[in-house]
Amino acid sequence: MKQLGTVAVLLLLSGIVARPAAAQKPINLALVNPVQIVKEDESISAFRFNLLYGKNASMQGFDLGLGNHLTGDMKGVQWGAVNIVGGSFTGWQSGFVSINTGEVEGLQWSAFNSAGRINGLQLAIINYAQHANGVQIGLVNIIKEGGMFPVMIIANWGFED
């Protein structure tokens, strides 16, 4: 019984001293990480401009810059020379290179696109998806699993049940 009381006190104290989840910041401006207004482990909720390279946890809104890097999810529009999203992406992503390790729902339009899973449309010279529930249009189109063809020119598609 005494152990149960100790566990309850520890749980209560951990809840009191635990840091609340960081609120999203509305805007971030970055020259090159770490020279940016909002720290890289924080999220942005409206607009981010990365002159050379910016890195944050996640983002909702409009992301613009030469190098756009998010370790988590992105929802909105992302335009940049290089776009890297470590989580899922929902919206429209354009650039020279767009790389997503998670799922992309929407449009990827770059010279080179890569996605863990595409639910939508990829337009590029080279498109790559681990899994596909959508269409790829480009010079070289690769769908590792679930595509009509593993590699195809002009167009490739995959529709999972």
Overall geometry comes to elongated
Cα(first) to Cα(last) distance is 52 Å
Fraction of residues in β-strands: over 45%
What is the string of helix and strand elements?
A: HEEEEEEEEE
Largest sheet features: 9 strands, mixed
State the secondary-structure class.
mainly beta
Descriptors:
mainly beta, disordered N terminus, 161 residues, 1 helix, 9-stranded mixed sheet
Structural overview:
- The protein has 161 residues and is mainly β.
- It contains 1 helix and 9 strands, in the order H-E-E-E-E-E-E-E-E-E.
- A hairpin with a 5-residue loop joins strand 8 and strand 9 (151-158).
- It is elongated, with a radius of gyration of 20 Å.
- The relative contact order is 0.08.
- The model is unreliable at 3-21 (pLDDT under 50).
List the topology elements:
Blueprint: H1 2-17, E1 25-32, E2 35-36, E3 44-56, E4 59-70, E5 74-85, E6 89-100, E7 103-132, E8 134-145, E9 151-158
Parallel strand pairs: 1-3, 3-4, 4-5, 5-6, 6-7, 7-8
Antiparallel strand pairs: 1-2, 8-9
Short note summarizing the structure:
The chain is mostly beta strands. It has one helix at residues 2-17; strands at residues 25-32, 35-36, 44-56, 59-70, 74-85, 89-100, 103-132, 134-145, 151-158. The radius of gyration is 20 Å and the shape is elongated.
